[in-house]
Specification:
Elements (H helix, E strand, L loop, with lengths): L3 E12 L5 E12 L3 E5 L6 H8 L7 E6 L2 E2 L5 H11 E4 L11 H12 L4 H14 L15 H13 L5 E5 L7 H17 L3 E5 L3 H5 L3 E6 L2 E2 L2
Parallel strand pairs: 3-8, 3-9, 6-7, 7-8
Antiparallel strand pairs: 1-2, 1-4, 4-5, 9-10
Length: 225
C-alpha cells in the first residue's frame, strides 16, 4: 500500500463577488507519494482554485488540508509561508524569473530564503538542479536571454531547490509550444521515477493529462472522476 502524502477533507470554497457563489463543493480525496496527478476540467470548474487551496496559498475555505500528516488548515500566514517554502515547489504558467538574474541566481532564491544551508552549498545545490534539468550550461546566463522552454526548465529547477515533498503546477505548459510541453511532461515524469517526487498539475492539455498516473476530473466545483 502506497503512502498518502496529501489529504483533502470536505473542502468547500465560496466566492463573494458579485454575489455569494460556491466554487468548490465538499471535495475529499488523497494523493499517494511518488504519484503524478493531473487535475482537469473546463474553465471555471474550480481546478485552479482547488490547487491554490492545496498549496496553502488560499486559506479562505471550509474543510481541512493535511500534508504528510501535518494539519495545515488554521495555521497562521507566517507558518504557512515557511511550510510552503520548504515543502511545496510551485510551477506557474508563467515562469516569474527575475529577468536580470542568472539562471543559477533564480534557482537559489528559495533556498536563500529558507536559510538551511550556506551560500556555497546553495549554489552547489542550485547548479545540480540545473544539471538535472539539462540547464547547467546556461547557469550564468541572464534569464531574459533564455528561450521560453529554457525559462520554464529553470522555474522547475527553482521549485526543486529545497527538495519539496510535493511539486504543484498551474498550467505549467500553458505558454509553451507542443515540443516544449512534451519536454516539461517528460521532466515531471522522470522526477517521479528518479527523484521519488510527488507532482500535482492543473492542465487543459489533454495529451499531457492522459499520460499522468491519475486524472482528477472536475465539473462545477466537484470531482466527477
Amino acid at each position: 500500500m502506497k503512502e498518502i502524502i496529501l489529504k483533502a477533507d470536505t473542502i468547500t470554497k465560496y466566492f463573494y463577488q458579485p454575489e455569494k457563489f460556491r466554487v468548490i463543493n465538499n471535495i475529499s480525496f488523497s494523493v499517494e507519494k511518488k504519484s503524478f496527478v493531473s487535475i482537469v476540467g473546463k474553465s471555471g470548474c474550480g481546478k485552479s482554485t482547488l490547487l491554490y487551496i492545496l498549496s496553502t496559498m488560499d486559506t479562505d475555505y471550509e474543510g481541512t488540508i493535511n500534508i504528510y500528516d501535518k494539519k495545515l488548515t488554521g495555521l497562521d500566514q507566517d507558518s504557512l509561508a515557511s511550510f510552503r517554502n520548504e515543502h511545496i515547489g510551485f510551477v506557474f504558467q508563467f515562469h516569474y524569473l527575475l529577468p536580470y538574474f542568472s539562471a543559477l541566481e533564480n534557482v537559489m532564491i528559495p533556498a536563500l530564503k529558507l536559510g538551511k544551508y550556506s551560500r556555497e552549498e546553495i549554489e552547489h545545490r542550485a547548479y545540480e538542479k540545473l544539471r538535472l534539468l539539462e540547464m547547467h550550461e546556461f547557469a550564468t546566463k541572464p534569464s531574459n536571454k533564455l528561450s521560453g522552454g529554457q525559462q520554464q526548465r529553470v522555474a522547475i529547477a527553482r521549485a526543486l531547490i529545497n527538495d519539496p515533498l510535493i511539486i504543484m503546477g498551474d498550467e505549467p505548459t500553458g505558454n509553451l509550444d507542443s515540443n516544449n510541453s512534451r519536454n516539461v511532461f517528460e521532466i515531471f515524469k522522470e522526477l517521479t521515477h528518479s527523484q521519488n517526487q510527488t507532482i500535482i498539475v492543473v492542465t487543459h492539455d489533454e495529451e499531457f493529462a492522459k499520460n499522468t498516473d491519475r486524472i482528477i476530473e472536475m465539473r462545477d466545483g466537484e470531482i466527477i472522476q
